[in-house]
Amino acid sequence: MKILANDGIPVEVKKVLEQKGYEVIEVRVAHEQLVNYTQKNAIEGLLIQKGTLLNKSMINELSHLSVVIFAGTSIELELMDYITSKGIQVIWAEEALANATAEMVFAHLFSGCRLLQESNRNMPLEGDISFKSLQESYSTGLELAGKTLGIIGMNKAGELVAQKALALGMNVLYHDSNVLSLKADYLLPNGISFRVDLDSSPIDKVLHDAHFLTVHTRHFERYIIGKEELESAHHLIGIINCAYPEAINEVALVDRVNEERILFAGIDRFEEEPNPAIQVLMQPAFSLSPNINTSTDESKVLIWEEIIEKMQLLRN
One Pfam family, short name please (predicted)? Predict the structure, then answer.
Protein backbone atom coordinates (compact mmCIF):
# COMPACT_ATOMS: atom_id res chain seq x y z
CA MET A 1 0.00 0.00 0.00
CA LYS A 2 1.26 3.47 -0.92
CA ILE A 3 1.05 5.98 1.93
CA LEU A 4 1.56 9.69 1.36
CA ALA A 5 3.03 11.30 4.49
CA ASN A 6 2.06 14.81 3.45
CA ASP A 7 3.18 16.55 6.65
CA GLY A 8 6.31 14.51 7.12
CA ILE A 9 6.99 11.48 9.29
CA PRO A 10 9.72 10.60 11.81
CA VAL A 11 12.55 8.67 10.21
CA GLU A 12 12.24 5.75 12.62
CA VAL A 13 8.47 5.50 12.07
CA LYS A 14 8.90 5.54 8.29
CA LYS A 15 11.46 2.77 8.58
CA VAL A 16 9.15 0.60 10.70
CA LEU A 17 6.24 1.03 8.30
CA GLU A 18 8.42 0.17 5.33
CA GLN A 19 9.59 -2.96 7.14
CA LYS A 20 5.92 -3.89 7.51
CA GLY A 21 5.44 -3.64 3.77
CA TYR A 22 4.19 -0.09 3.27
CA GLU A 23 5.59 2.22 0.61
CA VAL A 24 5.86 5.58 2.36
CA ILE A 25 6.12 8.65 0.14
CA GLU A 26 7.28 11.71 2.02
CA VAL A 27 6.33 14.63 -0.25
CA ARG A 28 4.68 17.94 0.65
CA VAL A 29 1.78 18.34 -1.77
CA ALA A 30 -0.05 21.66 -1.88
CA HIS A 31 -3.68 21.68 -0.78
CA GLU A 32 -5.02 22.39 -4.27
CA GLN A 33 -2.90 19.60 -5.82
CA LEU A 34 -3.62 16.86 -3.29
CA VAL A 35 -6.50 15.20 -5.13
CA ASN A 36 -4.67 15.13 -8.46
CA TYR A 37 -1.40 13.90 -6.91
CA THR A 38 -2.99 11.03 -4.98
CA GLN A 39 -4.93 9.90 -8.05
CA LYS A 40 -1.98 10.14 -10.44
CA ASN A 41 0.37 8.28 -8.08
CA ALA A 42 -2.12 5.60 -6.97
CA ILE A 43 -1.95 6.68 -3.33
CA GLU A 44 -4.12 4.48 -1.12
CA GLY A 45 -3.41 6.05 2.27
CA LEU A 46 -2.99 9.65 3.40
CA LEU A 47 -1.06 10.32 6.61
CA ILE A 48 -1.47 13.84 7.95
CA GLN A 49 -0.57 15.76 11.08
CA LYS A 50 -1.57 19.41 11.28
CA GLY A 51 -0.31 20.99 8.08
CA THR A 52 -2.76 19.39 5.64
CA LEU A 53 -6.13 21.10 5.52
CA LEU A 54 -8.91 18.68 4.63
CA ASN A 55 -12.54 19.63 4.16
CA LYS A 56 -15.70 17.87 3.07
CA SER A 57 -15.53 18.96 -0.55
CA MET A 58 -11.99 17.61 -0.82
CA ILE A 59 -12.97 14.35 0.84
CA ASN A 60 -15.63 13.91 -1.85
CA GLU A 61 -12.81 13.87 -4.40
CA LEU A 62 -10.57 11.53 -2.40
CA SER A 63 -12.87 8.52 -2.64
CA HIS A 64 -10.00 6.52 -4.19
CA LEU A 65 -8.24 6.45 -0.80
CA SER A 66 -8.57 3.40 1.43
CA VAL A 67 -7.44 5.04 4.66
CA VAL A 68 -6.70 8.44 6.20
CA ILE A 69 -4.30 8.39 9.15
CA PHE A 70 -4.46 11.30 11.59
CA ALA A 71 -1.10 11.44 13.36
CA GLY A 72 -1.45 14.89 14.92
CA THR A 73 -2.80 16.02 18.27
CA SER A 74 -5.67 18.11 16.89
CA ILE A 75 -8.69 15.86 16.43
CA GLU A 76 -11.69 16.86 14.30
CA LEU A 77 -14.45 14.33 14.95
CA GLU A 78 -16.89 15.90 12.50
CA LEU A 79 -14.40 15.52 9.65
CA MET A 80 -13.45 12.01 10.73
CA ASP A 81 -17.09 10.95 10.78
CA TYR A 82 -17.55 12.40 7.30
CA ILE A 83 -14.52 10.52 5.96
CA THR A 84 -15.86 7.28 7.42
CA SER A 85 -19.28 7.93 5.85
CA LYS A 86 -17.56 7.96 2.44
CA GLY A 87 -16.25 4.43 2.96
CA ILE A 88 -12.70 5.51 3.84
CA GLN A 89 -11.16 4.03 6.99
CA VAL A 90 -9.92 6.44 9.62
CA ILE A 91 -6.98 5.66 11.90
CA TRP A 92 -6.03 7.89 14.81
CA ALA A 93 -4.33 7.50 18.17
CA GLU A 94 -7.35 7.64 20.47
CA GLU A 95 -5.72 5.84 23.38
CA ALA A 96 -2.47 7.82 23.13
CA LEU A 97 -4.37 11.10 23.41
CA ALA A 98 -6.90 10.03 26.04
CA ASN A 99 -4.91 10.76 29.20
CA ALA A 100 -3.86 14.21 28.00
CA THR A 101 -7.52 15.07 27.41
CA ALA A 102 -8.63 13.65 30.76
CA GLU A 103 -6.01 15.66 32.62
CA MET A 104 -7.05 18.83 30.78
CA VAL A 105 -10.63 18.27 31.90
CA PHE A 106 -9.45 18.32 35.49
CA ALA A 107 -7.18 21.28 34.89
CA HIS A 108 -10.29 23.25 33.97
CA LEU A 109 -12.35 21.73 36.78
CA PHE A 110 -9.79 22.65 39.42
CA SER A 111 -9.33 26.12 37.96
CA GLY A 112 -13.05 26.80 37.83
CA CYS A 113 -13.83 25.47 41.28
CA ARG A 114 -11.11 27.57 42.89
CA LEU A 115 -11.82 30.62 40.69
CA LEU A 116 -8.28 30.55 39.33
CA GLN A 117 -9.38 31.69 35.88
CA GLU A 118 -10.42 35.03 37.42
CA SER A 119 -7.65 35.21 40.01
CA ASN A 120 -4.99 34.67 37.33
CA ARG A 121 -6.38 37.61 35.37
CA ASN A 122 -6.64 40.01 38.28
CA MET A 123 -3.57 39.25 40.40
CA PRO A 124 -1.10 40.75 37.88
CA LEU A 125 -3.29 43.86 37.62
CA GLU A 126 -4.28 44.44 41.25
CA GLY A 127 -2.34 41.99 43.41
CA ASP A 128 0.13 44.55 44.68
CA ILE A 129 -2.51 47.04 45.83
CA SER A 130 -5.62 44.92 46.47
CA PHE A 131 -4.23 41.66 47.84
CA LYS A 132 -6.61 41.43 50.80
CA SER A 133 -9.60 42.33 48.67
CA LEU A 134 -8.72 39.68 46.08
CA GLN A 135 -8.13 37.16 48.84
CA GLU A 136 -11.65 37.74 50.09
CA SER A 137 -13.13 37.59 46.57
CA TYR A 138 -11.55 34.25 45.71
CA SER A 139 -11.94 32.49 49.06
CA THR A 140 -15.32 31.00 48.13
CA GLY A 141 -14.03 28.11 46.05
CA LEU A 142 -15.45 24.59 45.97
CA GLU A 143 -13.95 21.12 46.38
CA LEU A 144 -14.50 18.33 43.87
CA ALA A 145 -14.58 15.53 46.45
CA GLY A 146 -18.13 14.42 47.12
CA LYS A 147 -19.54 16.16 44.04
CA THR A 148 -21.09 14.36 41.07
CA LEU A 149 -19.45 14.40 37.66
CA GLY A 150 -21.66 13.69 34.65
CA ILE A 151 -19.93 12.34 31.54
CA ILE A 152 -21.81 12.58 28.24
CA GLY A 153 -20.43 9.82 26.03
CA MET A 154 -17.83 7.27 27.02
CA ASN A 155 -14.85 7.22 24.70
CA LYS A 156 -11.30 6.42 25.82
CA ALA A 157 -10.80 9.87 27.33
CA GLY A 158 -14.14 9.55 29.11
CA GLU A 159 -12.96 6.32 30.71
CA LEU A 160 -9.91 8.03 32.14
CA VAL A 161 -11.97 11.01 33.28
CA ALA A 162 -14.20 8.59 35.19
CA GLN A 163 -11.18 6.85 36.71
CA LYS A 164 -9.60 10.11 37.85
CA ALA A 165 -12.89 11.44 39.22
CA LEU A 166 -13.44 8.33 41.32
CA ALA A 167 -9.88 8.56 42.61
CA LEU A 168 -10.65 12.11 43.78
CA GLY A 169 -13.68 10.91 45.73
CA MET A 170 -16.28 12.12 43.24
CA ASN A 171 -19.48 10.35 42.29
CA VAL A 172 -19.63 9.53 38.58
CA LEU A 173 -22.63 9.22 36.28
CA TYR A 174 -22.38 8.76 32.55
CA HIS A 175 -24.64 8.32 29.56
CA ASP A 176 -23.73 6.45 26.39
CA SER A 177 -26.32 4.40 24.52
CA ASN A 178 -23.55 2.33 22.92
CA VAL A 179 -21.52 1.68 26.07
CA LEU A 180 -23.99 0.31 28.57
CA SER A 181 -21.40 -0.53 31.21
CA LEU A 182 -17.82 0.31 32.05
CA LYS A 183 -16.11 -2.39 34.05
CA ALA A 184 -12.35 -2.35 33.83
CA ASP A 185 -9.15 -2.54 35.85
CA TYR A 186 -6.67 0.25 35.15
CA LEU A 187 -2.97 -0.11 35.93
CA LEU A 188 -1.70 3.36 36.75
CA PRO A 189 1.83 4.53 35.91
CA ASN A 190 2.77 4.27 39.61
CA GLY A 191 1.86 0.56 39.65
CA ILE A 192 -1.43 0.93 41.50
CA SER A 193 -4.37 -1.04 40.07
CA PHE A 194 -7.67 0.82 39.94
CA ARG A 195 -11.12 -0.74 39.39
CA VAL A 196 -13.94 1.13 37.64
CA ASP A 197 -17.44 -0.37 37.71
CA LEU A 198 -20.15 1.85 36.25
CA ASP A 199 -23.39 1.48 34.30
CA SER A 200 -24.81 3.96 31.83
CA SER A 201 -27.62 6.12 33.23
CA PRO A 202 -30.46 7.86 31.37
CA ILE A 203 -29.39 11.23 30.02
CA ASP A 204 -32.08 12.98 32.06
CA LYS A 205 -30.65 11.59 35.29
CA VAL A 206 -27.11 12.60 34.37
CA LEU A 207 -28.21 16.14 33.53
CA HIS A 208 -30.35 16.47 36.65
CA ASP A 209 -27.90 15.04 39.18
CA ALA A 210 -24.53 16.26 37.93
CA HIS A 211 -22.66 19.14 39.54
CA PHE A 212 -20.25 19.12 36.61
CA LEU A 213 -20.64 17.98 33.00
CA THR A 214 -18.03 16.99 30.42
CA VAL A 215 -18.50 15.70 26.87
CA HIS A 216 -16.69 12.60 25.55
CA THR A 217 -18.74 11.15 22.71
CA ARG A 218 -17.12 8.92 20.09
CA HIS A 219 -18.77 10.80 17.24
CA PHE A 220 -19.67 14.40 16.44
CA GLU A 221 -23.05 15.54 17.76
CA ARG A 222 -23.90 19.22 17.34
CA TYR A 223 -25.17 20.88 20.51
CA ILE A 224 -25.32 17.70 22.54
CA ILE A 225 -25.64 20.20 25.39
CA GLY A 226 -27.92 23.04 24.36
CA LYS A 227 -30.41 25.35 26.00
CA GLU A 228 -32.83 22.58 26.99
CA GLU A 229 -30.11 20.41 28.47
CA LEU A 230 -28.72 23.33 30.49
CA GLU A 231 -32.20 24.10 31.81
CA SER A 232 -32.51 20.45 32.92
CA ALA A 233 -29.20 20.58 34.79
CA HIS A 234 -30.63 21.78 38.09
CA HIS A 235 -27.50 21.22 40.19
CA LEU A 236 -24.93 22.24 37.61
CA ILE A 237 -21.89 24.18 38.85
CA GLY A 238 -19.53 23.91 35.89
CA ILE A 239 -19.26 22.45 32.41
CA ILE A 240 -16.23 21.40 30.35
CA ASN A 241 -15.74 21.08 26.59
CA CYS A 242 -12.51 19.37 25.61
CA ALA A 243 -14.31 17.35 22.94
CA TYR A 244 -15.00 19.20 19.70
CA PRO A 245 -16.44 22.50 18.40
CA GLU A 246 -20.22 22.85 18.77
CA ALA A 247 -20.52 20.15 21.42
CA ILE A 248 -22.04 22.88 23.61
CA ASN A 249 -24.25 25.77 22.52
CA GLU A 250 -22.04 28.67 23.56
CA VAL A 251 -24.80 31.28 23.30
CA ALA A 252 -26.92 29.33 25.77
CA LEU A 253 -23.87 28.75 27.96
CA VAL A 254 -22.95 32.45 28.09
CA ASP A 255 -26.55 33.31 28.98
CA ARG A 256 -26.53 30.73 31.76
CA VAL A 257 -23.32 32.09 33.26
CA ASN A 258 -24.47 35.70 32.93
CA GLU A 259 -27.61 34.74 34.85
CA GLU A 260 -25.28 33.27 37.52
CA ARG A 261 -26.94 29.88 37.23
CA ILE A 262 -23.60 28.25 36.47
CA LEU A 263 -20.39 29.15 38.28
CA PHE A 264 -17.95 28.49 35.43
CA ALA A 265 -17.13 26.74 32.19
CA GLY A 266 -13.87 25.28 30.93
CA ILE A 267 -13.55 25.56 27.17
CA ASP A 268 -10.81 24.07 25.02
CA ARG A 269 -12.88 23.58 21.84
CA PHE A 270 -14.84 26.54 20.49
CA GLU A 271 -17.78 26.86 18.14
CA GLU A 272 -16.00 29.35 15.92
CA GLU A 273 -12.46 27.98 15.84
CA PRO A 274 -9.98 29.40 15.05
CA ASN A 275 -11.73 32.72 15.78
CA PRO A 276 -13.70 32.20 19.03
CA ALA A 277 -16.59 34.54 19.77
CA ILE A 278 -15.52 37.62 21.71
CA GLN A 279 -18.28 37.15 24.27
CA VAL A 280 -16.77 33.78 25.12
CA LEU A 281 -13.20 35.05 25.29
CA MET A 282 -14.14 37.99 27.50
CA GLN A 283 -16.33 36.06 29.95
CA PRO A 284 -14.35 36.14 33.24
CA ALA A 285 -16.03 32.97 34.51
CA PHE A 286 -14.63 30.92 31.62
CA SER A 287 -11.38 28.99 31.92
CA LEU A 288 -9.97 28.96 28.39
CA SER A 289 -7.36 27.04 26.40
CA PRO A 290 -6.71 27.03 22.62
CA ASN A 291 -7.43 23.43 21.54
CA ILE A 292 -4.49 21.91 23.42
CA ASN A 293 -6.34 19.19 25.35
CA THR A 294 -4.62 16.36 23.48
CA SER A 295 -1.24 18.03 23.08
CA THR A 296 1.51 17.11 25.55
CA ASP A 297 5.13 16.06 25.13
CA GLU A 298 4.11 12.55 26.20
CA SER A 299 1.14 12.21 23.83
CA LYS A 300 3.24 13.30 20.83
CA VAL A 301 5.48 10.28 21.41
CA LEU A 302 2.70 7.82 22.15
CA ILE A 303 0.80 8.79 18.99
CA TRP A 304 3.35 7.15 16.72
CA GLU A 305 3.46 3.96 18.78
CA GLU A 306 -0.30 3.57 18.43
CA ILE A 307 -0.28 4.51 14.74
CA ILE A 308 2.33 1.83 14.03
CA GLU A 309 0.29 -0.76 15.93
CA LYS A 310 -2.91 0.10 14.07
CA MET A 311 -1.13 0.14 10.71
CA GLN A 312 0.11 -3.37 11.45
CA LEU A 313 -3.47 -4.48 12.09
CA LEU A 314 -4.54 -2.83 8.84
CA ARG A 315 -1.83 -4.73 7.01
CA ASN A 316 -3.09 -7.99 8.46
Answer: 2-Hacid_dh
Give the integer Cα–Cα distance in Å for 24 and 5.
Answer: 7
Angstrom distance (rounded) from CA 158 to CA 164: 10
To the nearest whole percent, how much of the chain has pLDDT over 70?
100
| Shared-domain flag, residues 8 and 129 | no
Structurally, the chain folds into a number of domains equal to: 2
> pTM value?
0.95
The three-class DSSP label of residue 27 is coil
Spatial CA neighbour of 212 closest among 245, 179, 240, 251: 240
Distance CA 246, CA 222 (A): 5
pLDDT in tens, 153-211: 999 999 999 999 999 999 999 999 999 999 999 999 999 998 999 999 999 999 999 99
Co-location of 109 and 153 in the same domain: yes
| Residue 149 included in any domain | yes
Q: Residue 82: which of 60, 65, 97, 53 has the closest Cα?
A: 60
Domain that holds residue 225: 97-288
Q: Which residues contact 121 (CB under 8 A, 6 or more apart)?
A: 284
